[in-house]
Specification:
The complex is a heterodimer of chains A (about 290) and B (about 220). Chain A is of the alpha/beta class and about 290 residues long. Chain A has 12 helices and 13 strands. Chain A folds into 2 domains: about 140 residues, 3-Layer(aba) Sandwich (D-Maltodextrin-Binding Protein, domain 2), CATH 3.40.190.10; about 90 residues, 3-Layer(aba) Sandwich (D-Maltodextrin-Binding Protein, domain 2). A 5-stranded mixed β-sheet of chain A has the order 5-1-6-13-7. In chain A, strands 10-9-11-8-12 form a 5-stranded mixed β-sheet, sandwiched between helices. Chain A has a 3-stranded antiparallel β-sheet with strand order 2-3-4, with helices on one face. Chain B has one domain: MetI-like (MetI-like fold, Orthogonal Bundle), CATH 1.10.3720. With about 220 residues, chain B is mainly alpha-helical. Chain B contains 8 helices and no strands. The chains are: A alpha/beta (about 290), B mainly alpha (about 220). At the A-B interface, α1, β2 and α4 of A face α1, α2, α3 and α7 of B.
Chain lengths: ~290, ~220
Amino acid sequence: MKNNGKKLASIITAAALTLSTSTLAFADDTFRTLDEIKDSGEINIGVFSDKSPFGYVDENGDYQGYDVYFANRIGEDLGVKVNFVSTEAASRIEYLQTGKVDIILANFTVTDERAEEVDFALPYMSVSLGVISPKDAEVDSLDDWDPDQQMIVISGTTAETYMVENYPDIPLQKYDTYANAKNALENGNGAAWVNDNTEVIAYAAANPDFVVGIPKLGDQDTIAPAVTRGNDTLLDWINNEIVSLGKENFFHADYEATLTDTYGADFEDQLVIEGGQAGGKAEAATEGSTEG
Amino acid sequence: MNLGLEVLLKGSNMLRLLQGLWVALKISLIAVAISIPIGLVLGILMTFHSRVLHVILQIYLQIVRIMPQLVLLFIVYFGTTRLFGINLTGEVSAVIVFVFWGAAEMMDLVRGAVSSIPKHQYESAGALGMTKKQTYQYVILPQAVRRLVPLSINLVTRMVKTTSLITMIGVVEVLKVAQQIIEANRMSSPNAAFGIYLVVFILYFLACWPISLVARHLEKKWAVN
């Protein structure tokens, strides 16, 4: 009886301890180095399993998508089997910090805050805001805005913040949900709709009556692989891999295999970053062309 | 109305959904099988009049009640790795959390059922010369278990449903498979979400209904006349 109580108490203490320390950043050596990964013959890569077309599972139960295409190539070039781990947006950092995956390739946008928690490799995709409008009244510039016209925006998004800060004179028409904003655009309640450029490009690809007049607006965000902080051997290998893949225009091939259906061929160079440098194909990437 | 159910006929989608259901059921059934005996023992201990034991068990129960299951899952899955370097799989972490939770709930149910047995039952058993062990074994527990059945079935079905959270620690169960199928067919069948969630609803129902049937059967069979 006493023994039982003790055991229980120790379980509770352990749980409480875990709780209190799990928020602290540990100087951890939980990650596996490049050699350890090679020796084990397997690499654990965290991807989305329900974010088509970046990471999803097809009808045969196989992982597919832009991120997965790259992950498979990493496995091939390392000579190891890729073990895909289904991650959620909220737990991506935790997976790396506990070493439960070696790499996160889950549409991971590079931010300063995240860069303090994990190490980002070179980017392989670029996203920003975009503006979509009806084909017969295309909006291709935000200068000289007709003050009688309104811009559709979803409340609480980066698009709203950007418009308020940079174009305070443009009247905004705010909606809470994607569906409502979409209806507003279709019904002509506003002159144009500003949102993530991947969203508006995909929308225009599916609805030929609309056109993306401004495919890149505001700050460029990049999407990059991430590894556990301090895992330099793996980070260097990925960076070299991205640079050398640039020579064969790998990410363009990736785009054509996985993203063309959603975004169309027109925006390939806007979205793809080849060889770790923004601005189109690797051959064309001259010094100083790196954006954002 | 097109429910998009044709999506389930593509490739091995329906099989994947069933496999997902099996993952959810397996984890909850293993957890139930482990937590019922632990809960029984702890519940009986709770009815003993030991203050120290009572306080400890109450703290345990309250921790389980207060903490959302999702937090427990994160603590066990990521916390054990951070603190002790033990790399538990998502499935094992899920079983640990469900046992931790199930045993506490079970303990409280047992405590309730045992304390609901009238005092004269103990006294009559004592008058017949039964030892404490015999009293529990032959008089108190058989009656308590009958009162326990409907309550514990409720707990089991709650556990089955709560498995939908374990996708957060990387375990792909039925709901996650459903989301994967919906998302993979977002372009070709944009309306598939409703139909597929409906199928998931039916699958959960088919999984939980037999459990309720068994419970009803036992309740009738053991009914005190």
